[in-house]
Structures are given as C-alpha cells and as structure tokens.
Amino acid sequence: MASIEGEFLRGVGLVAVLKLLERKQMYGYEIVEALEKRTDGVLAMGQSTLYPMLYNLEAKGFIAARWDESGPRPRKYYRLTSSGKKRLAEDSTTWRKLATAMGALGITQNVTGAFA
To answer: What are the DSSP calls for 15-34, one per residue?
Structure first.
C-alpha cells in the first residue's frame, strides 16, 4: 500500500507517534518499524521525518526522552508526558469526528483501527 506524503503525514504522524508512545517507551527506529508494521506501510516514515517530529514534540513538552546505555549501543527512549496524553486525547477526538464526517460523505465505512 502506498504511504501518505507531505503535510498530511505530518499531522497524522504526530497523532500516530503519540498513540504508540501511550502504550510504552520506544526509541526512534523502533517507532519507525512500528509505524510501518502496524499500518501496513501507510504511515511509514523515514528517520529524516521522524526525528524532527520527535524533537518538536519534546520541545513542546508532549514527550520526554532518556538515554539508555545498557545495551550494545546507546538508545534514546521517548515516553508520553501528561501534556502529551492530553494532546493525544484531544487529537483522537478530532480524528474520530473527521472519520465520522468522511463516513457521512461515503468516503470511509465503519472505521475501526488497531489503535482503538
């Protein structure tokens, strides 16, 4: 399946990253792999897209990072903050409304997802 590009991916990607981090702490490449696998490639993004997004989310206080140097290589793990949880709740509500509106237009049908 083709991936989503441009501005739309940045908006969708932000919510998807927050949702992944709601479940557990993850490092960057782990997030890239999870987005690819869990969305059948639709929300696949490269590290050059993901890392600026992570830095932005961290600067806004939606996520926090910590270094783990216990493995073979140091990894920076990201987790959702309380502000990030609030943002995710707001964005999730917006996306549900959007999906309902698109359904009313006949574009989507009975939208359910892996993140529900």
So the answer is: HHHHHHHHHS-EEHHHHHHH
What's the pTM?
0.82
pLDDT at 10: 66
Q: Does domain 6-104 have CATH number 1.10.10.10?
A: yes
Please report the DSSP string for 70-110 in residue order: SSSS-EEEEEE-HHHHHHHHHHHHHHHHHHHHHHHTTS--S
Sign of CA dihedral 45, 112, 18, 22: negative
What is the helix (H) or strand (E) element at residue 6, kind and residue range?
A: helix 6-23
Neighbours of 7 (CB within 10 A): 8
